[in-house]
Amino acid sequence: ETNCAVMAATELSDYLRNGNITHSVNLPDVQQPRLGGRRVCIIHKNAPGVISSITGVLTAANLNIENMVNKSRKDVAYTMLDVTGTVCPTLADELSHIEEAIRVRVL
């Protein structure tokens, strides 16, 4: 029991600090080493054009994508991007206006 509690706490901490997902029931496992810059994490519907919408918002904000991973499980996908450039405080709000976006975090 102690080992399970430690593992769960470690995985939750990694999600909160780095956006990595491990052993989720509803989301795919996604791990990406941090390469510097800011990290953008988006849970969204798994639908055509969503990645294009996300990168369009980042391009309009003059952010460069250094690293990106996108994985899906059935109807839900998780996209994690490491970006460089000046991240404005409204970026998460702008990304959340994408119709398919469910949750957006900027770390």
From TrEMBL:
<dbReference type="InterPro" id="IPR054480">
    <property type="entry name" value="AHAS_small-like_ACT"/>
</dbReference>
<feature type="domain" description="ACT">
    <location>
        <begin position="39"/>
        <end position="107"/>
    </location>
</feature>
<protein>
    <submittedName>
        <fullName>3-phosphoglycerate dehydrogenase</fullName>
    </submittedName>
</protein>
<dbReference type="InterPro" id="IPR045865">
    <property type="entry name" value="ACT-like_dom_sf"/>
</dbReference>
<dbReference type="Pfam" id="PF22629">
    <property type="entry name" value="ACT_AHAS_ss"/>
</dbReference>
<dbReference type="InterPro" id="IPR002912">
    <property type="entry name" value="ACT_dom"/>
</dbReference>
